[in-house]
Amino acid sequence: MTSPGEQDALDALKRVFGYDSFRPGQQEIIEHVVAGGDALVLMPTGGGKSLCYQIPALVRPGVGVVVSPLIALMQDQVDALRALGVRAAFLNSTQNLDQRREVERAFRTGELDLLYLAPERLQLDSTAQLFDQGKIALFAIDEAHCVSQWGHDFRPDYLALSMLHERWPDVPRIALTATATRATHNEITERLGLGDARHFVASFDRPNIQYRIVPKNSPQKQLLELLRSEHEGDAAIVYCLSRATVEKTADFLANNGIPALPYHAGLDSRIRERHQSRFLREDGLVMVATIAFGMGIDKPDVRLVAHLDLPKSIEGYYQETGRAGRDGLPSTAWMAYGLADVVQQRKMIDSSEGDFAFRRAATIHLDAMLALCETVSCRRAQLLAYFGEPGGAACGNCDTCLAPPESWDGTIAAQKFLSAVYRLKNERNQKFGAGQVIDVLLGKETEKVRQHRHDELTVFGIGTELREGEWRGVVRQLLAQGLLGVEGDYGTLVLTEASAEVLARRREVPMRREPERPAKIAKAARTARTAAPVDLSDEARPLFERLRAWRAATAKEQGVPAYVIFHDATLREFASSRPSSLEELSGITGVGENKLNRYGEQILEVLAEGA
Ligand code: ADP
Ligand code: ZN
């Protein structure tokens, strides 16, 4: 038996959104909020948080008020809801007085289902007065981690959210975030007064994302190769650390025929907005960006998130990679990682202005990130363990599962390398970067070697059993394991306390040997694709392209992102199952009542023409 609330929720899911079933966790949360309970929801990016407040807002009497810091995206969010036939509007500083008055009027008269609101408006007396004049179904607090002062997205305006409960104690509140760590969770609970709320912590697994971390050689070329071989015509986000790399990489891709746009905080805000808007609206664009880009970007069909530089923490990495594949279709999270990344990040922490506690926290975050890069076991299992979900079996959809790297005993290599660093320091009082130490071990008679008479050292030429690239792997892993340190502006190498244990043979050093991966992975990726819910046959592909063209034209005409019309997944299903009546169309995931009425006939025409 279903209760009336449950039935209403399921009806709304089918009728408005065109979805058949709830994703894990959604139903429980929705029922709890529909019944008037407070909730704190922790769910990964792409997990489906929006429905958790949108459906209760539709089912409960009154207007659902959504507080969100993402002002630049409110228009798109509202457009997407309107396309579903939901009566949505927003209030923020981008509107003129007349526009705001019209929205306020609609709120008072109950002509809205959902109202999006920028947090700074909560400070205004006029907002409180407005709230008193209408009926509120619920308060949703999106991106709730913005209330956490230690997090990376702190918004002072969010502190004012605690007053919602004091002034309107009978209105249920639902706070949502994709930031999962214990510390943030506790801070949200405390600051928003959600101690008595029910806490829903979903699994953070994103099974459709394939995690891959490869050794960095020439990152731009590696990226280009990946885009060409596996992600042609796909939407992608490429993250780089610096503005300069962003610009260079975007140019490089564009020069090689891949449509790419740069995005970073140094660009004029109008350019940033234009690039963001094009990325959301057009198919198959590559956004090359610093981490300034991405929060709240709910484009469902990003097929690849690439990192050309090492993220500072697993939290950041997971949030960024989570932007791939929100629609549940197979997607790739790919990162190129090398020795220079470790040196650079360690240097940045050392030279940062933060106090001891800050540097210590930054080091712990970086070490966890490095451990993920150097692991010989399943990446996903390690990621989930980090978020407190231990015991995961090997996933079969990450690079270490698909092409297992070997682990080898690197103790002797480590000793050789550390001895060379030791001798340079103690016999010559010199410090060098990795390149020179490797040249010495390989016995290379370079000018720099002769100039410093390094060929006279006892360690000269004792490391010829490994090639240069392999030595760089050794150094990277020593740095990652804390068995070697870096110092100063030039990233010179120094011994750490732990180095002494290795030199004294009290500690073994297991290392990872990179497998011959690219070929195998590419094959595995293809099989993973075939396993996708709806993969396209050769006959269906041209039909899918016709549908995409129809969608692009329709979206352009309306000035909305393409996915607001229909998701890729829905177009794929049109193309492969070829419905021939409105009745059949309505059974397809993503076709709700409103879209069926509005586009049904047009879709049938496109399908008939393409047949
Ligand atoms: P989050 O806010 O948690 O990152 P969203 O709410 O944006 O995730 O949802 C991610 C995507 O999944 C959206 O495109 C949404 O339409 C889709 N989605 C959500 N719930 C369902 C469902 N029950 N069935 C099918 N698709 C869903
Ligand atoms: Zn795995």
UniProtKB/TrEMBL annotation:
<dbReference type="Pfam" id="PF16124">
    <property type="entry name" value="RecQ_Zn_bind"/>
</dbReference>
<keyword id="KW-0862">Zinc</keyword>
<feature type="domain" description="Helicase ATP-binding">
    <location>
        <begin position="30"/>
        <end position="198"/>
    </location>
</feature>
<dbReference type="InterPro" id="IPR006293">
    <property type="entry name" value="DNA_helicase_ATP-dep_RecQ_bac"/>
</dbReference>
<keyword id="KW-0347">Helicase</keyword>
<dbReference type="InterPro" id="IPR001650">
    <property type="entry name" value="Helicase_C-like"/>
</dbReference>
<dbReference type="InterPro" id="IPR036388">
    <property type="entry name" value="WH-like_DNA-bd_sf"/>
</dbReference>
<dbReference type="GO" id="GO:0004386">
    <property type="term" value="F:helicase activity"/>
</dbReference>
<dbReference type="InterPro" id="IPR018982">
    <property type="entry name" value="RQC_domain"/>
</dbReference>
<dbReference type="InterPro" id="IPR010997">
    <property type="entry name" value="HRDC-like_sf"/>
</dbReference>
<comment type="similarity">
    <text>Belongs to the helicase family. RecQ subfamily.</text>
</comment>
<keyword id="KW-0238">DNA-binding</keyword>
<dbReference type="Pfam" id="PF00570">
    <property type="entry name" value="HRDC"/>
</dbReference>
<dbReference type="InterPro" id="IPR011545">
    <property type="entry name" value="DEAD/DEAH_box_helicase_dom"/>
</dbReference>
<keyword id="KW-0378">Hydrolase</keyword>
<keyword id="KW-0413">Isomerase</keyword>
<dbReference type="Pfam" id="PF00270">
    <property type="entry name" value="DEAD"/>
</dbReference>
<protein>
    <recommendedName>
        <fullName>DNA helicase RecQ</fullName>
        <ecNumber>5.6.2.4</ecNumber>
    </recommendedName>
</protein>
<dbReference type="InterPro" id="IPR004589">
    <property type="entry name" value="DNA_helicase_ATP-dep_RecQ"/>
</dbReference>
<keyword id="KW-0234">DNA repair</keyword>
<feature type="domain" description="Helicase C-terminal">
    <location>
        <begin position="219"/>
        <end position="370"/>
    </location>
</feature>
<keyword id="KW-0067">ATP-binding</keyword>
<dbReference type="InterPro" id="IPR027417">
    <property type="entry name" value="P-loop_NTPase"/>
</dbReference>
<feature type="domain" description="HRDC">
    <location>
        <begin position="537"/>
        <end position="611"/>
    </location>
</feature>
<dbReference type="InterPro" id="IPR014001">
    <property type="entry name" value="Helicase_ATP-bd"/>
</dbReference>
<dbReference type="InterPro" id="IPR002121">
    <property type="entry name" value="HRDC_dom"/>
</dbReference>
<dbReference type="InterPro" id="IPR032284">
    <property type="entry name" value="RecQ_Zn-bd"/>
</dbReference>
<keyword id="KW-0233">DNA recombination</keyword>
<keyword id="KW-0227">DNA damage</keyword>
<dbReference type="InterPro" id="IPR044876">
    <property type="entry name" value="HRDC_dom_sf"/>
</dbReference>
<dbReference type="Pfam" id="PF00271">
    <property type="entry name" value="Helicase_C"/>
</dbReference>
<dbReference type="Pfam" id="PF09382">
    <property type="entry name" value="RQC"/>
</dbReference>
<keyword id="KW-0479">Metal-binding</keyword>
<keyword id="KW-0547">Nucleotide-binding</keyword>
